[in-house]
Design goal:
Structural class: alpha+beta
Number of strands: 16
Number of helices: 18
Strand order of the largest sheet: 7-6-5-10-9-8
Strand content: 15-25%
Low-confidence stretches: none
CATH superfamily of the largest domain: GAF domain
Mean pLDDT: 85
CATH topology of the largest domain: Beta-Lactamase
Distance between the termini: 96 Å
Radius of gyration: 34 Å
Largest sheet: 6 strands, antiparallel
Shape: elongated
CATH class of the largest domain: Alpha Beta
Length: 492
């Protein structure tokens, strides 16, 4: 029978039907029916007197591809006569049954017209959908409350691996490095090997943690990082066949291969089924997600793939927003010319590191750095050349300092390096490294160092002591450093 077009129906019928509210969960259920149902209707002379459930079913017929309107007539009957059919099965609800409401009607309709296996599959799909939507809300909230982008990305990966959500065995994030033109292994959650997988799954079941507790563990990095360390040693090229295919598709791509062509994926033990999903909010490539069921060998089913696409789209937008926010915060803290901390942020970090070292009875050192004859550079070569020198010094200092040291611009051509927990004997090796590196840039430096608590216990007293020694180095002819009371060390 030819489906009824809404233009074939009387306008007063269409209006009454369209005004009927249909719950979203019913729209979702009917959209997932295994095949369309056929709805025939004989409508009484007053469409406004139809039971609400009848109007709601007719509206589903107008808008759902899985409930097709067949013969619809306006006749001289009281109320409405409906007939829903599929493959020889027919159900005609009475007006009394329609009065029981759309939830009862929909449930009974599905019980009559679907096979038991079909009803079970529909229930599983709907439960999976509901669970994932609820989990996505929780994960999005966690990501937005995260204190940094890294924490948010770990939470995102946990949504892919958590049994409360998509339930993959493991997930790895490769971030796009625009300068190198490759995807670099960044973060990962999942077992390292089969023994680790067995141990993790036993612990999860035994502890029976809810989704909030699991996400809290992930946000605090309370998980084994051996798989992550393996991922961080992998680089993926956009020219590799699997990667290129994932980048060229919108949704995640499911691969079924004995062994991948990508050397990096092979190093991670990828085989059988695996999924690559490109994260491209607003068309801008941020990264690539690899996920699979390496240890359980469970097949990736269609709903899992569909909701991975939905999940990654939503969380990628959160990642993009957090990254932009982080960038704005960094710009507020960083000196625009040299790329090191500005004076305000430098002062705050010095105070914070000094207090922390004092609480733990640890030393804290500072080094003042001054570019020799910087005024002559500006006067003879121009301010653009002077800016290039300052940029080079800022980059050099970030290179020769330790992880955890703080580099900032003090003002003009002066920089400050804060070295938490560094005793005085660490200063001389550092200033020698800095002096040699500056010579490689074609400039010379004068440096002065001081260490708390030997040279002062406050930021002001420490900087004053370092400044006094800096000028000792200058008076001694520049191209040197003074970090204690033994005198000035000259650079070769």
């Amino acid at each position: 029978m030819r489906p009824v077009d809404r233009d074939d129906l009387p306008a007063n019928v269409v209006r009454v039907v369209r005004l009927a509210p249909v719950p979203m969960y019913l729209r979702a259920i009917f959209s997932r029916l295994p095949e369309p149902l056929l709805l025939d209707a004989d409508i009484g002379g007053d469409p406004g007197a139809l039971p609400l459930a009848a109007r709601q079913l007719l509206k589903l017929g107008l808008y759902s591809e899985q409930l097709t309107l067949g013969r619809v007539r306006v006749v001289d009957v009281k109320g409405v006569q409906l007939k829903v059919s599929r493959q020889g099965r027919v159900w005609s609800p009475t007006n009394a049954e329609l009065d029981r409401g759309i939830s009862w009607v929909a449930q009974h309709l599905l019980e009559v017209l679907l096979e038991r296996e079909e009803a079970s599959a529909l229930l599983r799909a709907f439960a999976f959908q509901s669970s994932n939507l609820a989990t996505l809300r929780t994960i999005t909230t966690f990501m937005l409350q995260a204190t940094d982008v890294d924490q948010a990305l770990y939470v995102m990966l946990s949504g892919i691996t958590s049994g409360y959500s998509l339930g993959f065995n493991r997930a790895a994030l490769f971030t796009w490095d625009a300068q190198r033109g490759v995807f670099v292994g960044s973060k990962a959650i999942g077992p390292f090997d089969d023994d680790d997988a067995h141990h993790i799954w036993e612990a999860i079941e035994f502890e029976d943690k809810d989704i909030d507790a699991l996400l809290g563990d992930v946000a605090q990095r309370n998980f084994d990082t051996r798989f992550q360390q393996r991922v961080q040693a992998v680089v993926l090229s956009p020219d590799e066949p699997e990667v290129a295919r994932a980048l060229g598709c919108g949704p995640p791509v499911l691969f079924r291969v004995t062994a991948p062509q990508s050397p990096g994926l092979s190093r991670l033990g990828v085989s059988g089924e695996f999924v690559l999903a490109a994260l491209k909010p607003h068309g801008r490539t941020l990264g690539l997600i690899l996920t699979d069921n390496r240890f359980s060998r469970a097949a990736v089913f269609p709903d899992q793939l569909e909701y991975l696409s939905f999940f990654t789209d939503q969380t990628a937008l959160v990642w993009e927003n957090l990254a932009l926010l982080k960038r704005e915060e960094e710009l507020a803290r960083v000196d625009g010319l040299t790329g090191v901390l500005n004076r305000r942020e430098l002062d705050a970090r010095l105070e914070a590191e000094l207090r922390r070292c004092q609480r733990h009875d640890r030393p804290c050192s500072v080094v003042l750095v001054d570019v020799d004859y910087f005024k002559n550079i500006n006067d003879t070569r121009g301010h653009a050349a002077g800016d290039d020198v300052l940029r080079g010094i800022g980059a050099m200092l970030r290179t020769v300092t330790r992880t955890g040291d703080v580099v900032g611009r003090f003002g003009g051509d002066e920089f400050v390096v804060v070295m938490p927990e560094a005793p005085r004997e660490h200063l001389l090796p550092f200033v020698l490294r800095a002096g040699e590196a500056a010579a490689g840039l074609g400039v010379s430096l004068s440096l002065g160092g001081a260490t708390a608590p030997l040279d002062g216990t406050s930021a002001a007293s420490l900087l004053a002591a370092a400044d006094q020694r800096l000028y000792q180095a200058k008076r001694a002819g520049r191209r040197g450093a003074c970090v204690d009371d033994t005198g000035v060390v000259s650079f070769s």
